[in-house]
Amino acid sequence: MDSAVTTTEALPMDATKPTGSLILPDRSPSLQPDLSLTEKLQKLSIQSAYSVNGQHLALWSATAENEVRLLRHMQGNLSWDKLEHEDIDLNFGISRYCPLQAKNAFLNGRQRTVIQVAAVAEDVKLKNTLAKLCEKLSSAFGVIPLQDTQMTINQKVIDGKDASTRTAQQYLVVLDTSDKRLVRALPDVGQKVQIRFKLNYHSSYIPAVKISDTDTADAAEYIHDLFQGSMMSDTEQFLSQFNKSEEDNAQDPVENVQAALDFLSDDSRDLVDTIEKTKTWVEANPWFRFSPRGTKWTDVEWPGTRIKPPPGVRSSRAFFKVSTPWQPLWPDFVRVANVRVKFPLPAQHDNLHKTIESMALTIGGRLTYSPDIKVQWFEGKAHKVLNQSGNTEPVKAWWEYTLNFQTFDPKYYRNLHKVFPAIADHMQAGKFQGEHAVVAQALTKTKAGKFIISGCPGSGKSTFCQRIASAVVDKHCEPEAGYEKGRPKADRSGSVRAKVIYTSPQNEQCRDAINRFKLLNPGRKACRVYGYNRELQALIQDECKVGTSQSAETKDEPINKFHKALNQHTRRSEVEHEDPRDPRLDCDSLSSIIRATAPEENLEKLRESWRLWKNAKQTWYRKEEEFKKEGAKLLKWAVDGADALFDKGVLGKPNLLIIDEVGRLTETHALIGFSIWKDVPIIFAGDHEQLGPIVDTTDTRFHYTVEEKESEFRSLVGAQLEKSLLERAAALGGVDAQLRSNHRVYGSAGEFPCEVLYKGRMIQTHTDESPATIAVGEWFARHSQSRKNALFVDLHSEEQEQGTSKINPTSAYFVVQLAVDIAREMKLPLMDDYKKFDNPLENKDSIRKGRILILVAYAPQKVQVLSCLKKISAHEVDKSRISVRTIDDSPSHEAEIAIVDLVRTGRIGFLAEPARLKVAATRAQLGTIWVSNREICQRRESHNLKKLYDYHKAHNAVISIRGYDTVCEKCCRAGHVEHRCAEKNLRCNVCDKNSRQTDQHAARNCRHTTWPTRADWEGERWMSSPKSVDSVIRDPFVTK
């Protein structure tokens, strides 16, 4: 094995000549062949924690050999076009059982580029492999119509007519996913798909379409061009598809077809005369039914989107909303009609769930989708751009510095106070305090304008970034200023209006960031950017109201309750989850702002586009490029007028780029902005001890045989993607500023995260008891013997599988009941109001009630919780105070009380990761309640959850609850069923219908909405008592 390593001859390193498409720096020393094995392992920066003896010797020798072969192979094997169109070959003889370990430091630029880009290529390979596997395994479908109001569900077949409006028929398609291999290969919820059904398309289902007056000229030109380029028989066959009426066309040539052929073949006529006569002929025969010969109907793709399953459906099935496709191969001059086909329908049952569960999936087909690898393409290209010799010296200096974060040339330090003079002004005005003031001062000496901040939860990383953004947009800036003597001369553009791009990896975090910026900077223009193509399409396509979905704007409402339930679910899916990146659903998106604020004369062309999109899509597609040019002008107008852009803002050049939660991004992703705007100052902010990048390839391996073909994947270099830029910087001393003070949490609520999880590395600033912590503590004291504002609920429940994820309906119901009780019974202050007063108790009437945040470990569980929360009536609680998020979506978010639903009762899964526990434990300001199962916390593999349980047990803060698997629909309490309910005289205080026994009900089941009003809820204050809504006494910790 040692001899294999000694063959590592020097590789050619010509920096001026790119090898393939990969440009490598010329500063990389060669790997020396005469080193000992131990030295070679160190040279290749293999983790030194592993001993080089015994069986480890062979393992790490093989790992070293793999890295050497990888460096040699990828040197000339990487083309960036391949990242977009095909797999990069990673099968070059390396050992598949010795994956490369993630590195903190790189020996040279070549090693970094090859390993990181190979990891990106491997990610692309996995996505493509899964997409191909999905196509092979998807085979059994069921179909339910969503929109056709003329038919009932009991029909055996449905004719997908598109009627006179020619609108696409909508369907809910159900796919059998009992094969676990298919579950892994399916696209994400919200991703676009295409389905090819194995159905018979008869000619009688091909519709006749009337050619509009505006399209007759195009039809005449098409016919003339066809005659000039084809044989007479082809033209004759085509003309025979025109007719004077909607009746079926004769298949044999008729007299008027022969007349058309005669003047087309007359050479004595000029072109204009021939086309005019052809146009007259088309006007006389306007009905057109095109039957393309040789069409393979099983290749017709039905477009759709994957949606989440309806709440309560737990079968092994995936759900898609699809539309009928256009007729294949129809000529451009005619408005394309939709395909018509017959589907077998399922039998209808009493409810939606039973109907879906009992569906016979008998329709054959294939599901395909195109993996979205645009980000990976940019990730790979970032290295190519940054390795090019054309970069300025400061860019090269910082790019080399990030190899190991050890040495940086002092002449390239940059003073950002000179670039942004308003930062110093804001410091003098006292807008930066404590640690934030120290960090703001440190911006006077940044490495080429790049600055890395790591901070614990509650330290104000996001707040600091927001205040820096506010300062930057407050004044003009000097884009070329700030360098010390020795920086190469550059053309100075002088003082310019400053612009900030603020990006974060999660949609929820971007939404929080833009809302905070607007509060801090009233009057400033802030826009959410969803990417150029998304914004452009949203701008030039159908005008719709913000917050609604296009599919919801149907004229005909279903007459069948079954169809109505399906429509409600699909519409809700589109708005709530399926396309959170749709700019039309966000009033802060660029396209929405243009619609609302652009001058009327600039919108004239857009209004034409919207009109055609609604009424004449084929005409719209012919003018699409014209509309795109007009839309691009308006996008540029909006970008130029914005002070801050949030999310994927690549539409304009910023003066400052802020990347928040950078630890959640892969290093290659974090470098995209740097590669695009090399000389622009960048602030990287995050917490290296919390959640890192989510990487699909890490430890992934499978070997499937499908249709006698093998589908195999084994990750070899994916581990490097899990090592973020922030984590490497923290490990090697490259963090420029460290924030350690937690200003978020108060009193005993911070004891567990600070002392147990962070082990003193996070310092809590508000440790003393205060009126807020005492008031909240009264609620905790009523339910446990603990003096801590913390609680662990040992709930008897069972997890259930939903696809590759997990749900727990029992815990979902419980956490909602718990949130309602806290919102009603706990004296919970809104800390934003509370902190305004030196003596809060004297101003308690000015302090509103606080917020409750429900955190769940899995995304499908969020759907379960929201479904339970929806059933809570407006009489009981102000539901605007209760929010639901996944743990992964909660960084940078906070609330007064956090309820953490860990969901799992079987295996521990990814909850064993300490970073995820740290995120969940640091969201609350005044108290955290954990809902889990003590048995899972006491297992050997759940080391961190055992710390959680042991801490609460040591402080008498554990409560065990059973009985939530049964709930009474009459009194809305757990532990019994309706016929055993002890509430004999229910009294509802919301309505006056309690005089008769049959009308008695709980307030949750009351349909009256006259009280409490919205004004009643808004009038609630910190110490106000809850309003009694019925005669039932509910305690979430008591089951009867």
UniProtKB/TrEMBL annotation:
Keywords: ATP-binding, Helicase, Hydrolase, Nucleotide-binding. SUPFAM superfamilies: P-loop containing nucleoside triphosphate hydrolases. The keyword Metal-binding does not apply. Residues 447-708 form the AAA+ ATPase domain. Pfam families: AAA_11, AAA_12. Belongs to the DNA2/NAM7 helicase family. This is MFS monocarboxylate transporter. It comes from Cordyceps javanica.
